[in-house]
Amino acid sequence: MRDDAHPHPADRLPRAFVVGCQKSGTTWMQHLLQAHPEVCSHGEATFAAHLVLPMIQQLKAYNTRQRVGELNTFVDDEILALARESVQVLQRKWLDACDAPQRVRVIAEKTPEHAIALHVLGAVFPSMRVIHIIRDGRDGVVSGWHHNIRSKGDAFRVQFPTMKGYSRYFAEHHWVPYITRARAWGETNPGRYLELQYEHALEKPHEQAWRIFAFLGVNTEKALIDEVVERASFRSLSGGRSSGEVDNASHFRKGQSGGWKTDLRHDSIDAFEQIGGQLLEDLGYARAERVVV
């Protein structure tokens, strides 16, 4: 149990959450953060969906089912405090496992699905910071297609026999709602929200890394940024491949942007743009050019 007189060092550290639609570069971001000695970071803890929300729901259900009366109920602040404590219990272990825990200044976590649950996490950690990484959703379709075939095989092909169907699903159920809801949270919390595009990170990795670490309030010395960027580079993560060298069996498949222009058929592009076209434009991505016959 926690000793309030001597709290664990992790409890005093600020929290950051990396979010973004699946296949948008969140894993690269995770590796970038892990490479910085002042950031303790892990991915896919799925706190919101599988810990915080169920806990909040269960405690509220208890309030309605217990038979002592109002004296025996959890008020909202107590419910949030218990949810916060549950996350802190786990993240104390994260910090203890770091090579140099005394150097850590931020604890970060990456779960793409947290993009649609920032209001919940924000209630639990009112001062949290959020890094939202965005990628052209058409590239996300290509990456997601190969990832799901690799990880789910025939079951995925049964669910989505055509890339056109998957393209529509990806836009409607992932890309548009994830980006829209994360940006909405950012609009109401501008000082605690950093948005960047994956394509810019590929073009200028050192510049974007500096933005990220300055936002988190950790060391941004050039030598350290250079080292961190190299450790999180496509060549390092892919085992030595150059950017553009494709391996469909790898999570780090290609390391380039714009592949949708050759990898997606017109029907798949149209299916995506019918749902996500306006958001593409809002984010500065051009719609596909139409060939007039």
Notes on the protein architecture:
Helices cover 54% and strands 9% of the residues. It has 293 residues and is α/β, with parallel strands linked by helices. It has one domain (13-282): Rossmann fold (3-Layer(aba) Sandwich), CATH 3.40.50. The longest helix has 26 residues, at 163-188. The radius of gyration is 21 Å and the shape is globular. The termini are far apart.
Question: Which tags fit this structure?
Answer:
54% helix; alpha/beta; Rossmann fold; 293 residues; 5-stranded parallel β-sheet
Largest sheet: 5 strands, parallel
Helix content: 40-55%
Number of helices: 13
Q: Approximately how much beta-strand content do the residues carry?
A: 5-15%
**Overall body shape:** globular
For the record, the CATH architecture stands as: 3-Layer(aba) Sandwich
Mean pLDDT figure: 92
Total domains: 1
Write a brief caption for the model.
With 293 residues, the chain is of the alpha/beta class. Helix content is 54%, strand content 9%.
